[in-house]
Amino acid sequence: MDITVIVCTYNRCQTLSEALESIAAQVMPSSIDWEILVVDNNSTDRTREVVDELSVRWSGRFRCVSEPSQGLSFARNAGIRESRGSVLAFTDDDVTVEPDWLQNLTSNLHSGEWAASGGRIIPVWAMPVPKWLSTSDPHTMGPFVAFDAGTQAGELNRPPYGANMAFRKEVFEKYGGFRIDLGRTAKNLIGREDIEMGNRLLAAGLRLRYEPDSVVHHPAPESRMRRKFVLKWWYWFGYAEVADLGLPTDARFLFRGIPLYMFRRIVRWTVQWMISIDPARRFASKRNVWYWAGMVRACYQLSGKHDLPTAANRE
Known about the structure:
two-stranded antiparallel sheet
């Protein structure tokens, strides 16, 4: 088997159907043997029925496995274990991929020169973008899974995002799977497992490739286009950053494991938030307050533990 496309899902049978349809319709060379592996992470809706129906229509293309441990990293690692391909592509259960997405994403991975690849992720806005949300600010755009490094293909010096990435399977066998202390669950928005994976490979000296013609369209529903959701996302991103990289080592003064400079930065951004007039700048400042608050919580919780992020937290 040349390629396995891994789609992890949890109670999204309606969007899952559309996502899988677009993946199954990929235009691929006849010489490439590929499959779609759906990892059902304890869904209670019609997920299994959706996959079964598509399996009939696309005979031999689909497989479905279950992962009882809740969480995206658990599901992705299950997909890696159950995959048959030498190249593993990942995308989300609510996207639409273009017909040449998979071929463009994976074509350069078969030779072994590149360890992984990533492509463009374009948000599909469910409503007009509000004034407080600046689409030109890559930080504010984090919750909307936007990824665009330009139109030129070549080496990628930053990790790709989980909605549009592919790896040679052998890198997981050598460097481990996704960190199970990171990755979104039903209870929180802790993420960064895809970023940590990419950084791990870059730190090992492996090469990542950017494929701008591999395009995924990712929905930005109204529920995400709310201040409350964006702030919550950035709070958990700050938490995940400490969980990923470990406790800061550059602080001279600590209070219960929390560097004092973090409190100063919260105060600074709170003041900026209160005095800013421009809606986008005002919200960006507020976003930073939530981000640093997440880091404060992580430092407080993790400073009293001895199981800080290590390879033992990977599968």
